[in-house]
User: What shape does this take?
Amino acid sequence: MGRGQPFHTGNLAAVLAAARGKGAAPPILAFDVETTGTHLYTGAKIFAYALATKRCLTYVGKPSKKVFKRLIKDYVLVMHNAKFDLAAVERFLGKHIAESIRFHDTRAQSHIVDNRHKTHGLAALCWSLCQWPTELDKKVNSFARHGDYSVVPKDLMDEYQRHDVARTMFLHRLFWPRIQSSKYKKAYERELAVIVPTMRMEEKGIMVRRKATKRLIDSLHKDVIKATEELRAIAGRPVNVNSPGDVASLLYDEIGLPILQRTEISGQPSTGKHVLLELRDKYAHPAVERVLEIRSKLKGIVQLEKYLELSAADGFIHPSINPIGATTGREACSNPNLQNVARTDTARAPYPIPARKCFRPRPGHIFLFIDYAGIELRLITHYAKDKRMKHLIMTADPHAFAAEIFYKPSKRSADPQIRKGYVRAGRPKRLRDSAKNAVYAICYGGGAKTVAETLGITVEEAAKAKAEFVKLFPGIGRISREVAETVWHQGRVETAFGRPIRLSGEESYKALNALIQGTAADIIKMAQVNLHKYLQKATGGEVFQILPIHDEIVFEVPRKRLKDLPDILKGIEQCMVDMPNLSVPLEIDIEYSTTSWEDKKPWDM
DNA sequence: GACCTCAGCGCG
DNA sequence: AAAGCGCGCTGAGGTC
Assistant: This one.
């Protein structure tokens, strides 16, 4: 900054007055709250807030209902990660106000302007854009361990708050003119629109079956003790399964198994799941089996204990859902990540943990799970304009069809079921699932080697399978290269709904994947906004969303509303599948559960 | 003690 | 030259 502070200090009246611009434009203020922690739904509270005008006249004050109400009513508020500030203000006021507020979010702006930043944090962004100093951030953060900023000395905190609102206004003044006059304004407005529905999901949370979770932990614990003793007997020493080095010493030095693969970065002998499964199949050494088991179950215990910890306050987990978590525009979930809870029906793990048993609908409610059927392949087909694939999607099961191509009876195949020509209409499911993975690998530019691994066939067979697939679906075969070409020349792709996704030239091979993920993200976000409005209107908010999982939304429905559910589901379907700009129709699958997330049952319309 | 990178692994 | 991609979380092992 060079010439003193990048902001001025004023009193509240002066700041509120100075915010009023010329003419009829509503007054605008940057707004930032400070809280005693990061978990708003388990006790964190506002202890201070800060305001900044366009010309960086700043004010720092203690929270006040009167002032907050005035700000909400009369001003456009600019926030960095508005979801947090809005939720904190709502907790302070004790009521919902976010639906009626006018606001901007500079974090969303940053993502629209350039999605490639590793983090869109305020300090990091302002540093990279104009070298705004970060010494103060370091100082404050060294005081505010675990997110409690109330322990920071007041004068230090005061200065820090002024920096923060000033930075927020700086970002707004940099980004907003660029977005406002660009074709990306709509994409930005969609990001704003999804913030409030996301807040409502975090607020609702998901109920944890605490006793069942404790029982599950106990049973895993017993298994781990037993398996650990067995491994110790086999190895003749204690083994730390969480230490890749220790496991590698055991398997490769002491037992003498062959090194099938090395790690990507440091080139150490790999002890990853895939390698271990191959070793298990080839050599059936009991140590390998026990390592797999102990690793999986230890991880499960840690994960489940986290669920207990996070639900201790009110029996519910209120995760943090980041509306723009990924560079592609996808949402992300943390504290905990409920988007990667292990499943047992289509488990990827050799020792799957039934972690979804830990979650139940709140009393008097049932779970509803609605996902888009094969949305990625539908979107690829849309962009690829592949007529045969479109027809296949609308009339049959494309992955079952792919399984028939990939697993055509072949005398040379190692798989007995393939040799016998067992594959018909995608049976068995194992082969259909593998075929599905192979289809996506081919679509996204995977090589014969990857296809061979996903299908469990030789590289030569995979090359042939791939060629045959691409010949049948020429559009699909071309699309990855075409989109990569666009990125190479323009540095970005745009989704069918106008979201820009920038990629460097070196990353252009990722372009199709980014385009598809980004488009699916657009769709589920629009769906969430539609659903929030519709469910509010049709059920008074009694039916509600609690979690988005990329192509799926989890809802809860009160039992007393079950009789209306067929009608409500028609409305929900409309909210989810009625999307403009797409040449391939969208479809949804509906499941429900009255007990836990683990026990899903199909729902027939 | 704080912070980093890496390997490993769960989901879409 | 070739590569399916995108996340968040944990523990190990290292540095400062």
Observations:
- Chain A has four domains: 8-182, 208-317, 361-372+520-602, 377-516.
- The radius of gyration of chain A is 27 Å.
- Residues 142, 242, 244, 263-266, 268, 270-273, 295-296, 299, 303, 330, 337-343, 347-349, 353, 355, 371, 376, 517, 520, 549-552 of chain A lie near DNA strand B (CB under 10 Å from a C1').
- The domain at 208-317 of chain A is CATH 1.20.1060.10 (Taq DNA Polymerase; Chain T, domain 4).
